Amino acid sequence: MASKSKKPAESNQKSKEKKTPFFLNEKFRFIIGLIIFVIAIYLLIAFISFLFYGAADQSKLDLKLKELVMDREIKVLNKAGKTGAFLSELIINKGFGLASFLLVYMIGVTGLRIISRNLIRFRKNLIYSLILLVWLSMALGLILTKHEDGSFIYYGGRYGYIMCTWLGALIGNIGLFFLLAVTGIILVIIRFENSYAWFKEHLKPKPKIKKEIDGTP
Q1: Residue 195: is it exposed, middle or buried by C-beta count within 10 angstroms (0-12/13-18/19+)?
Q2: Do the beta carbons of residue 96 and residue 157 sit within 8 Å?
Q3: Do 130 and 104 meet the contact criterion of CB atoms below 8 Å apart?
Q4: How big is the chain by its Cα radius of gyration, in Å?
Q5: Alpha-carbon torsion 16, 21, 24, 27, what sign?
Q6: Element housing 49 (H / E)
Q7: With the C-alpha atoms ordered 116, 121, 125, 126, is the resulting torsion angle positive or negative?
Q8: Residue 204, by phi and psi: left (phi above 0), alpha (psi -120 to 50) or beta?
Q9: CB 93 within 8 A of CB 51
Q10: What is the mean pLDDT of the chain?
Q11: What are φ and ψ of residue 147, in 5° steps?
């Protein structure tokens, strides 16, 4: 009888010892997080190289993707290679401009979060970074437009240029400037706790100092 009573306990122990699928265990999460973090570092190198060598690589980037990738004789100066140069052109010039560096930040933080290294408040910072990405792209698109002076960078990217053109036609460039200024102040107040007190202190009218008249001779 004693031997029979042990069977359910042994079966429960065996069921507990069953291994979870590889794609659900901690090792898989670590590998995925590490890959994402390395991608962020790779993009950072590509973006920085694009700022220095993008002008020299521009003629190659105008080629078709298949020709750029398959032709071994085509060389680029970007430290991340032809893939890095292509991704930089795609994300920076055809995307969000210099604000695209925030994408690198978000990808890197996401990789660390998957590895279980929660260095910052993940959700709060991710949402704020996405909003700041759009805002900064539009601000740079308004302030630093691309002119026909040989410049190869759309500082606000194609997204910033299109949004600024549309909103500029809708509310005018002055209206767009005030819109970006107000939304920028709102973002600062939401993001930094002490900023509201600073704005409140510096924007409120200063009390008039009454001069006391001394009646003594």
Answers
A1: middle
A2: yes
A3: no
A4: 28
A5: positive
A6: helix 26-61
A7: positive
A8: beta
A9: no
A10: 80
A11: -105, 170
With beta carbons less than 8 A apart as the criterion, state whether 94 and 157 touch. yes
- Which pair of structure tokens corresponds to residue 35? 């890959």
114 contacts 33 by C-beta, under 8 angstroms: yes
Largest CA distance in the chain: 116
Contact call for residues 61 and 86 (beta carbons, < 8 A): yes
Residue at 36: amino acid letter:
I
Inter-residue contact 148 to 168 (CB < 8 Å): no
Amino acid identity of residue 149, one-letter, is D
Under the banding of pLDDT at 50, 70 and 90, the label for residue 21 is low
- In terms of average pLDDT, the best of 8-12, 90-94, 115-119, 195-199 is 90-94
Q: Which two tokens stand for residue 45?
A: 């190198």
Q: What is the 3-state secondary structure (H, E, C) of 62-82?
A: CCCHHHHHHCCCCCCCCCCHH
What pTM, to 2 d.p., does this model score? Answer: 0.75
**Which of 9-18, 33-42, 66-75, 192-201 is predicted least confidently?**
9-18
Check residue 71 and give left, alpha or beta (phi > 0: left; psi -120 to 50: alpha): beta
Tokens of 216: 């003594």
| CB neighbours of residue 94 within 10 Å | 12
Cα-based distances in Å from 198 to 102, 128, 178, 182? 26, 21, 20, 16
Integer Cα distance of 29 and 111 in angstroms: 9
pLDDT digits 0-9 by tens, 133-162: 999 999 988 887 655 455 678 888 888 888
